[in-house]
Amino acid sequence: MPRTVRIEYPGAFYHVMCRGDRGEAVFRDDGDRLTFLKTLSETCSRTGWRVHAYVLMSNHYHLLIETPEANLVAGMKWMQGTYTQRFNTRHRVRGHLFQGRYRAIPVQSDEPEYLRLVSAYIHANPVRAGLLKEAKEFFGYRWSSLPAFTGQARLADWLVRRQVFEACGIVREGRKSRQAYRSLMVERMRDILNEQGRKESEATWNDLRRGWCVGGAEFRDWLLDRVGERLKGRRRESYRGENLFRHDDRTAESLLLAGLKALGLALGAVQAMKKSAPEKQALLWLVKTKTVVGDEWVVARLNGGHRSNVSRAVRAFSPPADRKRKVLARKLHICTD
To answer: Can you name the CATH fold of 12-229?
Structure first.
């Protein structure tokens, strides 16, 4: 059976979900959940993604993400692969963690009803699963973006609530907007806990789970046109279109050149340095944490030796411990402003 086409375009919104292999847990404890959120944060830094809603359950997760650049596939590959490595290391296991391919359903973002539908589905997931029965539990569930939306938790740099608020008809900023969203979600929770309301909600959400996109007829037609263009004469090509995205190897090259300029160094001089030289580590750290290129690309370009030196460089600058590395990090931050 052929694999589903990944539809990528700048400014796309997706409802992304993935379950554990054989239905097993992908989050065994809170440590795993914190690790996943850290990995998601790093993915956003590397790819420019914005997260508009999320929830972590025991054996799956849901995300509503926006990709300002057409880099869903590259970002998901890095995020799930990195989290799997961290999970396996933490629990001393090996093998696959996730079940097959993740689902990434395009969502029409210029019509408010669709963002409202998907975000409510994501935030209400713990209630639908029967984990939460009261409003206090609902808004106190740590592993969801809901507490940040209602002012009960800090809003992460990579988490955006404005579009969801606007989709719900909430245009005011500040405390009143958070209170208004809380009221809307209380109503949603009551609908789910009410038998009749749950039946009506499930009918809508079944369509959401089974569909290949979330949007109107014109949006579906537009996506189908893009699929047709992507497949026409391109069977052997990547689904990444023209492969000209800011976070691929071409951008890594541009970022590397900008870093060299910021440090006042020539590429040849850095390549000749020791593997542990702070300047070389700084450039390894810059490229590795701000793009999705592989370790092989970075060490080859900078003569960095074994790929394990990339991890050492990232650790040395996350955050930088000594004065020299702090100065280098400040200089390189200019490249990503």
So the answer is: Alpha-Beta Plaits (3.30.70)
